[in-house]
């Protein structure tokens, strides 16, 4: 990696909380806002990544137990066996505070653009797990068994899209790339979820909001209005 002179990295280690919800992709926007809201108010800097079948929330390892404690207080359930495997049985070392005292809001200008490509979510069909598991095994160990002329009917069937809508990506440029900022996910998702569903992908330098192509105009209108009014003035630095 020494050849990547422009590469930047965080000094913090991040841990991943996997979010499984029976609402599925149809309730992804509300889920993003509901989870990121209390974390923002408690001053957690997070990355949020929506996927086809689940969501991932990345929090700093040093505050992982605090985040778990907060979400438990809000009646989120955790896989106790997984927690025991990765965290041991130690209780959180300190409580979560949501006070703004001593933290100044950040007033910044954020630019947005709409990416030209349309996207569609595709995932592996859980009902055909044995089929696609065998395909993955072939790809990794026996590539000569893969049909050279294209996908077979069985290979096509391992994917499903459940009539996923065509998505357009609104990319918000997060100038400064300060990984200690918290509240960005919530500030962007909150005004949109009142009007439409969405997916969200955090990156080091941008927030990528995926909305249905039919909702693009309304989403741009909402974001432009909020950006001009200082939508992210509630964004603060994580203590």
Automatic annotation (TrEMBL):
GO biological process terms on file: amino acid metabolic process; carboxylic acid biosynthetic process
Start and end residues of each CASTOR ACT domain: 10-73, 165-223
Coiled coil (UniProt feature): none
Record-linked Gene3D superfamilies: VC0802-like
Protein name: CASTOR ACT domain-containing protein
Organism from which the protein derives: Rhizopus delemar (strain RA 99-880 / ATCC MYA-4621 / FGSC 9543 / NRRL 43880) (Mucormycosis agent)
């Amino acid at each position: 990696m020494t050849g990547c002179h422009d590469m930047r990295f965080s000094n913090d280690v991040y841990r991943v909380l996997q979010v499984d919800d029976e609402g599925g992709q149809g309730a992804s926007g509300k889920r993003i806002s509901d989870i990121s809201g209390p974390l923002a108010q408690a001053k957690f800097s997070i990355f949020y990544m929506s996927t086809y079948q689940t969501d991932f929330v990345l929090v700093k390892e040093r505050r992982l137990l605090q985040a778990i404690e907060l979400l438990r207080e809000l009646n989120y359930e955790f896989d106790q066996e997984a927690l025991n495997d990765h965290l041991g049985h130690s209780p959180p070392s300190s409580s979560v505070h949501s006070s703004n005292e001593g933290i100044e809001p950040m007033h910044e200008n954020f630019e947005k653009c709409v990416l030209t490509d349309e996207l569609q979510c595709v995932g592996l069909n859980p009902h055909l797990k044995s089929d696609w598991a065998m395909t993955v095994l072939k790809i990794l160990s026996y590539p000569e068994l893969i049909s050279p002329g294209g996908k077979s009917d069985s290979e096509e069937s391992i994917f499903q899209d459940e009539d996923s809508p065509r998505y357009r990506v609104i990319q918000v440029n997060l100038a400064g790339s300060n990984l200690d900022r918290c509240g960005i996910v919530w500030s962007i998702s909150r005004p949109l979820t009142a009007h439409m569903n969405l997916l969200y992908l955090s990156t080091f330098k941008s927030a990528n909001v995926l909305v249905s192509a039919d909702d693009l105009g309304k989403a741009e209108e909402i974001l432009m209005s909020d950006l001009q009014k200082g939508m992210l003035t509630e964004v603060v630095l994580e203590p």
